[in-house]
Amino acid sequence: SVLIILYSIDLAGGTLGVIGMSHQLFRRKSQSVMTIIIINLLVLHTFLLLSIPFRLSYYILQEWKFGTFTCRLASGIIYLHMYTTFAFYIAIIVIRLFRLEFKKCYTTTWVTAVWLLGALVIAPVFLSYYGTSKTYPSSQCFQFQQEMQKTPMVVVNYCLVGISVVVCAVLTVIQLSVICRLAVKYWPDINSHVEFRAQAKSFFFILVTLMCFMPHHVFRVYYIQNFHLDKDHKLLPYNEFFLALTTMCCLDMLCFIAGIAH
């Protein structure tokens, strides 16, 4: 199926990218802000890649064999990966866009805060409540659509969608305006200017966000509003597809290695 193909590409390309980028960083031994963020993206992608074989096993065998908690954990990892990756992408864009400079200690502090928030607050809350409102068959997984009947879950989803779309839209407009201004300023030798190349590379992260994350969020609104009418679960495969699409961002390390984004 399409999901097997997408996750297989993620697993192969993502693993290759993580290994290759880790090797580059080990040789470079840089301690810049960008390097710290990239290292954190590497760790994030590694967690996601470790969960993908479980998903592939389920989609190939059409049966979940790893228990309910592991199912909720694998389901949670993909969401935590998406939003934490999005946060780091936004950090990269903002730092380059406004030419911010942080000392290593400040960067380490806010990065640590992001991890602590995810590990000590968001993850425990997610695992404690998500997929626990009813008893699901142990042989099935990733079919927690009934959770959408709970008002708090709907509110959280709408908030996440709203914040993500607004932030992405605002940064896209600002980034495009900056690129256009620099293109006019440095034309026709735009590629010879470091400032323009840096902003063009930042736009890569906006493109990844638009292509990988935004389709899921746009469809999520439709899914929330219509899932209760979907008695035959025809919307579920589409939801799974757009969710799988978010994991394609783990291929970004291949772009880092190629010099497209870094």
TrEMBL record:
<feature type="transmembrane region" description="Helical">
    <location>
        <begin position="33"/>
        <end position="56"/>
    </location>
</feature>
<feature type="transmembrane region" description="Helical">
    <location>
        <begin position="76"/>
        <end position="98"/>
    </location>
</feature>
<feature type="transmembrane region" description="Helical">
    <location>
        <begin position="155"/>
        <end position="182"/>
    </location>
</feature>
<feature type="transmembrane region" description="Helical">
    <location>
        <begin position="6"/>
        <end position="26"/>
    </location>
</feature>
<feature type="domain" description="G-protein coupled receptors family 1 profile">
    <location>
        <begin position="13"/>
        <end position="222"/>
    </location>
</feature>
<keyword id="KW-0807">Transducer</keyword>
<keyword id="KW-1133">Transmembrane helix</keyword>
<dbReference type="GO" id="GO:0016020">
    <property type="term" value="C:membrane"/>
</dbReference>
<dbReference type="GO" id="GO:0008142">
    <property type="term" value="F:oxysterol binding"/>
</dbReference>
<keyword id="KW-0812">Transmembrane</keyword>
<feature type="transmembrane region" description="Helical">
    <location>
        <begin position="110"/>
        <end position="130"/>
    </location>
</feature>
<dbReference type="InterPro" id="IPR017452">
    <property type="entry name" value="GPCR_Rhodpsn_7TM"/>
</dbReference>
<protein>
    <submittedName>
        <fullName>GP141 protein</fullName>
    </submittedName>
</protein>
<keyword id="KW-0297">G-protein coupled receptor</keyword>
<feature type="transmembrane region" description="Helical">
    <location>
        <begin position="203"/>
        <end position="222"/>
    </location>
</feature>
<feature type="transmembrane region" description="Helical">
    <location>
        <begin position="242"/>
        <end position="261"/>
    </location>
</feature>
<keyword id="KW-0675">Receptor</keyword>
<dbReference type="InterPro" id="IPR047160">
    <property type="entry name" value="GP183-like"/>
</dbReference>
<dbReference type="GO" id="GO:0004930">
    <property type="term" value="F:G protein-coupled receptor activity"/>
</dbReference>
<keyword id="KW-0472">Membrane</keyword>
